[in-house]
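During the second half of the funding period, the structural biology subgroup turned its attention to how the target accommodates small molecules. The most pressing case was iron/sulfur cluster, which had performed well in the primary screen but for which no bound structure existed. We therefore specified the complex as follows and requested a full 3D prediction, including the ligand pose.
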Amino acid sequence: MSSSWTSRKTSPTSSSAAAARAEAGGALRVPAGALRTPGAVVLISTYELGHQPLSLASPLAALERAGFSPAAVDLAVERLEPKTIERARLAAVAVPMHTALRLGVKAVERIRSINPSCRVLLYGLYATLNAGTLFARGADFIVGGECEDPLVRLAEELDRGGSGERVEGANTAPGVRGPAAPWLRRIDFAVPQRASLPPLERYARLEHEGTTRLAGQTEASRGCLHFCRHCPIPPVYGGRFFVVPRDVVLADVRNQVAAGAAHITFGDPDFLNGPGHSLAILRSARAEFPSLTFDFTAKIAHLLKHRDLLPKMASLGCLFVVSAVESIDDRVLAILDKGHTRADVEAAIALTRNAGIALRPSLVPFTPWTGLEDYRELLAFIERHELIDHIDPVQLVIRLLLPPGSLLIDHPAMRPHLEAPAALRFTYEWGHPDPRMDRLNQELVGLVE
Ligand code: SF4
């Protein structure tokens, strides 16, 4: 699974990029009609968990439908070539997660150094949450929520020679200090355009029972109905979720199977927010491709509530489910408002196992409320429940992230541990009351790396 930054050329500081921009002065408006030339809009992804980026494929389709000819670069597997940026008039960088954001700001610096007059947009979950910092570091626009429509509207406005300052859903710097306003209206989804992306062979593969399968990724819904306090989705989606039309999802699956995919990851925040919709998609996909396999993400409470669906999903090719277990300590789970207990986790392990589906927990083992004994207990729990092979080592070193807007920041249990917001790391800093935990975390991070 490759996710490294492939361009190693020196990036300027943000202040030197800002100076270069100031020199460019009035050149920032795009000449009317110029944005529709091939490559004048460039979409950039930095990291999407080893998958061919849906955060590129979906806006690519929307822009093409509107008459643009965007270029796309996935920095997880490609270089950012200067000539791609030199001809760009609008560069849009996808930052759907924290790692993508940290790599994305480096990409913005590079774009600024190559082409100071190029307008720069960051879009996705972490762009919304960190808007204030990103504007200070050179972003012209921030788009969050259902990004495709505002992105197309912005491209159209810039192409008319406008400034882009009053486009619905596209945030500009004045007035934005913290998180930006996301676009939360139902959009007209287009089938993701993957033909111009790097082939699936360059991305993560699934190893299953001695075979290696090319893996694709799509989503049947966006947003989430729930309010887990540590999750970055509630501050942006506010408890809303949007289904992607069944025909769009199935067409995306079909295209990826045609490109060689034998396994599909459903990247929805929670595939069981709309269980009927999700099951219908699995049924149709499996009817068309009888050997296709799947995985998805769902919360523990949903696995318990929809326990009757699990054997059906297994028979439709579901190999494993990722679930944000986060902790096995009921006190921590209550602070995070996860909606499950340790006993629920144990029940979900048994239910999925009986159905023939592997449960792959994601974890946040380093919180201000987790001590050395708790960490040892987590390791014992993993061993006792035979989960060692189902947990990626990185899960054992994850430290609680607190992006701006996090629902945890104002929680009474969090406040005593909070330090300053760290603009460079895009998270609030917090300190553990036992310094040994911070040392353990650092040592384990080194070990896992
Ligand atoms: S952790 Fe999962 S269930 Fe909870 S708010 Fe986030 S996406 Fe929804």
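Two results from this model are relevant to the next phase. The longest strand covers residues 318-326. Residues 1-27 have pLDDT under 50 and may be disordered.
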